[in-house]
């Protein structure tokens, strides 16, 4: 049976996720630094960090987010320590994945439009807007600006509307299955990222050689 996917239209836009696709995981040294700055048991810190993260990605300010994390984790941080945590956190997410970024640039070189859709708070979003690694992006969309997080269907329709793009001319790449499934239900050609090798094969099927 032929399992080759049909080629995407010539005026296709490929929409990439950032975290887990174009970025590396938080490095171990960054994780250790956040735990040191937090000064509370690591399990308590990370439970609070992730429990509050969706609200942070959805537009909560840094002050509000770190206050909530402190309250849940039982920590007491002054303004200077909170700022150190904020800066260390932002920095921890700015390590790009070279192979994926190379594919992003190669996809753009085929003539396809490339864009970004990421669940991210304002501090990270602001840093990514000026990242040289992402300079080929036609547009960048962040949940903190849209006040909606993936996999809410509304975030995909907002992006398609902003790009004046019908679903059938869009390709979406994300590492989370729930985000991929939400896009598929809207008619977007969505693909779950599991590694740069399979992403290269997928993009080649959809765009031609990359």
TrEMBL record:
InterPro entries: HAD-like_sf (IPR036412), HAD-SF_hydro_IA (IPR006439), HAD_sf (IPR023214). Pfam families: Hydrolase (PF00702). CDD domains: HAD_sEH-N_like (cd02603). The keyword Hydrolase applies. GO terms for molecular function: hydrolase activity. It comes from the Bacteria. The keyword Hydrolase applies. Keywords: Hydrolase. This is Putative hydrolase of the HAD superfamily. It comes from Haloactinospora alba.
